[in-house]
Design goal:
single chain; 325 residues; alpha+beta; six-stranded mixed beta sheet; 7 helices; 12 strands; globular
């Protein structure tokens, strides 16, 4: 019986390909900044569950993602300190092998699988480098209070979130920040997403106000499934003061976006002022961008095939610095 491939022992051809990918990444996104800069990312990794435990995937086999693909994904993730990941599935095989590649200093926190017709059953996860950040105690899912149901008007959310937003607090350089990740449901006409986005925005605004007294930073990130700036989805998302990262404005979110006609699905956003005109984000936002993996990793794949090997979404990121004492 042939020996099973070991994800930690790539053949030379894979090592060479990873080295070329690392060089390309150096040009796009130098290694983690360290020091007083924190790099936070969000990445919808398409159907991140099953895995072909070999270096190539046979024609017609499923799942498409293999060990080589994990090495390419890991090379990207290592350049961030914390990454919110959407579409982790119930099958954790790909995630567990990815964590082996990232190394013992990396850890993850994730939800259970969501259930229901619109849930696409998936998990929300945070992957983070424990040498840079540590969980500071909070991990929770956001739910609509039952008493709020009586006050919901026409066009408001009349149920729980399809995929419950997930919040985790982290500590970095004596700064506490709470990351809230979500994956807004996509199915049906875009107008169906408006109530959920509006409810999320309202929930986050209330929470940001409560956390202000503790000097906690609140940052929302994930796949909001917003079609474009200025549409009803965007207006619902920003209705309570959430400000999308200007560093990401105009950047394509998916590998299928046409030039000049991109979507704004993936966002990193925060409040710049509270209800009393108080600054809420004490971390200072700096550089930001996306990682375009298509030119280097597509090879002979179609874009659709590439989306199942790597993803259909680009990683989006923003750097933050700690405030001056």
């Amino acid at each position: 019986m042939p020996r099973e491939a070991d994800v930690l022992a790539p053949p030379q051809r894979v090592s060479d390909r990873v080295a070329r990918w690392e060089e390309a990444l150096d040009a796009m996104l130098p290694g983690r900044p360290g020091g007083t800069r924190l790099r936070i990312a969000t990445w919808n990794l398409r159907v991140f569950g099953g895995l072909t435990k070999d270096w190539t995937t046979p024609q017609g086999a499923s799942p498409k993602r293999n060990f080589t693909d994990l090495h390419m994904i890991a090379a990207v993730l290592r350049r961030f300190d914390v990454v919110a990941v959407q579409e982790v599935r119930g099958d954790l095989r790909a995630l567990r092998h990815l964590m082996k590649l990232l190394g013992e200093h990396w850890a993850f926190i994730l939800t259970d699988v969501t259930r229901g017709e619109d849930a696409n059953p998936e998990r929300l996860a945070f992957l983070f480098d424990t040498r840079r950040v540590k969980p500071s105690g909070l991990a929770c899912e956001l739910v609509v209070p039952l008493e709020q149901g009586a006050d919901l008007g026409r066009g408001e959310l009349d149920r729980q979130f399809a995929r419950t937003p997930y919040a985790v607090s982290f500590l970095w350089r004596e700064q506490t920040f709470i990351l809230v990740t979500l994956h807004v449901r996509f199915g049906g006409p875009p107008a169906d997403r408006v109530p959920e986005l509006r409810a999320i925005a309202r929930w986050l605004a209330d929470w940001a106000e409560r956390e202000f007294g503790w000097d906690h930073n609140l940052i929302a990130l994930g796949d909001f499934n917003i079609d474009r700036v200025g549409d009803p989805l965007f207006e619902a998302f920003t209705s309570t003061g959430l400000v999308p990262a200007p560093q990401l404005a105009g950047l394509p979110r998916t590998i299928f976006d046409d030039p000049g006609a991109g979507h704004f699905y993936d966002q990193i956003a925060w409040f710049t002022q509270g209800g009393q005109n108080r600054p809420v984000l004490t971390l200072e936002a700096g550089a930001g961008g996306q990682v375009d993996f298509v030119p280097q990793l597509q090879g002979e794949h179609t874009l659709n095939e590439l989306s199942f090997h790597i993803s259909d979404h680009y990683p989006m990121w923003v750097e933050f610095t700690a405030p001056t004492p």
